[in-house]
What does this fold into?
Amino acid sequence: MDIVSYNQGTTAKAKVSEVDTNLSEVDNTLDMDKELSTDQSAALDSLGGLTMPLLGSVQAGEVVALNASNQVIKVTGSNIDNWIGIASEAKTDEDVPLVTLGSIDSNQAGLTIGSEYFVDTDATVTTTDTGFPIGKALSVTEIIIEE
It folds into this structure.
């Protein structure tokens, strides 16, 4: 599986393509478009991760958002529509966590392979349609972030 993450203007983009056993590319491409502010866009690193200071604490695998001060915060019911990705590592207040955008997060547990997942108000992913799709399970521990 090839994953290409990049920044195009103020939109974070990722493209995922698969290669079948005959080594030909399968037309099964997922595109991720996430609109970011100019400041957020400038913070994207070359790996498709977002590095900004954290407000509060976050565990690896939790869904995060950005607040009005461009700080990474754990998703709650009041900021769920501002989700940006999944924390790649556990961090505490004012550390700079790496946030996975438009690629594979492997910090999950108990996922159902092939199922669609959504952002939940407790910073986890769920199969219940909350109106905020995040991606599809590739394995019991991995999710491809599609939004």
In short: Helices lie at 38-42. The chain is about 5% helix and 40% strand. The two ends are 18 Å apart (CA to CA). The chain has one domain: 2-145.
